[in-house]
Design brief:
The chain is α+β, with helices and mostly antiparallel strands. About 30% of the residues lie in helices and about 20% in strands. The protein is built from eleven helices and 17 strands. The strands form six sheets. Strands 8-7-9-15-10 form a five-stranded antiparallel β-sheet.
Length: about 400
């Protein structure tokens, strides 16, 4: 079983992630983790913080000479801006220099202030910030590395941003990832990319923000992850919860999702075939997104993740109320992006990796990577055998 916990605030000293359950012997380096964090900073329309925030990481525990020990792994991501925030974010008794009392619609500000009894929105926004996803990407990097040992690779791409959407049915393969990351908005479709960039420029000109949709695909996922037995073991339910937990996500669908509801049954499901030379069951379509009955089918696992426009605008115009005076006003402004949709796809990859990794560990187990891989290979070698027929009692 995989467990992880993130800690830290957006402008605090650092973010920390503690990850437990990764088997011993997994090769991992700071450079690999830094590479994933750099991918999270990608995308046209990101704010200035992405240019100077370097995500300096330190592997604190659980890794020795480039390999995991099987013990809890603690990793710190330092905030290179911390010197500017030492007084404002100090844990010592004192008072902030500025209290934020005009909560932003669409953010956790007001509900969090009401829930915890805060008078300063910063007490909420610092933890609610999507900066926290950097810690998730670190955890996801290790989950991806472990899943790669059994042939699972995860990629995302942007299919819609603002009013611009790709009409291409082409999906990126793992080998396309580097090329995809070099594009301006991590989109496979050149025409759609140009339209998305134009949308971002238009929104930036008037100080507005944009949302969009990422498609996340996991290739090489073995059959049998998840379960039909209990509601909280269904893999599609676990994926939906994990993906929905990403800041600003408002919609998740598995496979063709909502589109399936408008089709007749004859056109809604993935027909099953048997490939005798490879001793495998196949599905030629991906309407179910690689999940049936809460269990992975052995095909690509596919999810679509919809992100709303960011709640902080570069030209604050959203009507709100000052929580102290109760007077009408506009929401305060924090440093923000025009859009973070391209980066959201990278975070969604991490969340999918963490869910699949947890279920793979649940199914295959193993204290070491060698044992984990051996158990996986043994299962696959026998999972397509013809089931034995129960004999009637004499």
């Amino acid at each position: 079983m995989l467990r992880y916990l993130t800690a830290g605030e957006s402008h605090g000293r650092s973010l920390v992630v503690v990850l437990e359950g990764i088997p011993a012997g997994l090769a991992i380096t700071k450079e690999e983790i830094a590479g994933e964090l750099a991918r999270r900073r990608l995308g046209y329309g990101r704010g200035p913080r992405m240019r100077f925030e370097q995500d300096e990481i330190e592997l604190l525990t659980g890794v020795r000479h480039g390999r995991t020990l099987g013990s809890p792994i603690a990793i710190e991501i330092a905030n290179t801006e911390w010197p500017k925030w030492v007084e404002e974010m100090s844990p010592a008794p004192g008072e902030p220099s500025k209290i934020l009392t005009a909560p932003r619609p669409g953010h956790a500000d007001l509900a969090g202030m009401q829930k915890y009894g805060f008078s300063d929105a910063r007490d909420v926004l610092e933890r609610a910030s999507a900066r926290e996803t950097a810690a998730r990407v670190v955890a996801g990097c290790l989950a991806k590395a472990l899943m790669a040992t059994i042939g699972v690779q995860i990629v995302s791409h942007i299919t819609a941003l603002g009013a611009a959407a790709s009409t291409s049915s082409q999906r990126p393969l793992p080998e396309d990832l580097a090329t995809l990351d070099e594009t301006e908005v991590r989109c496979m479709d050149p025409d759609a990319t140009a339209a998305m960039v134009a949308e971002i420029k238009a929104a930036a000109k008037v100080g507005d923000s944009l949302g969009g949709v990422a498609e996340v695909i996991a290739y090489g996922v073995p059959v049998g992850l998840g379960s039909h037995v209990h509601w909280d073991r269904k893999i599609d339910g676990l994926l939906a919860q994990a993906l929905m937990s990403i800041q600003a996500i408002k919609g998740v669908e598995i496979g063709d999702g909502f589109a399936v509801s408008a089709r007749r049954g004859s056109e809604a499901h993935d027909a099953i075939y048997y490939d005798e030379p490879h001793d495998a069951y196949l599905r030629e379509t991906t309407r179910a997104g690689g999940v049936e009955g809460g269990i992975t089918t052995g095909g690509p696992v596919i999810a679509h993740v919809a992100m709303k426009p960011l709640a902080t605008l570069n030209r604050p115009t959203l009507h709100t109320v000052d929580v102290v005076t109760k007077e009408d006003t506009v929401s305060f402004k924090e440093r923000t992006d025009v859009t973070a949709v391209p980066a959201m796809g990278v975070v969604a990859e991490s969340m999918m990796a963490l869910v699949l990794c947890n279920e793979a560990l649940r199914k295959f187990g193993g204290d070491s990577v060698v044992e984990f891989v051996r158990n996986h290979d043994s299962f696959l070698a026998h999972c397509n055998e013809t089931p034995s027929v129960a004999q009637p009692a004499s």
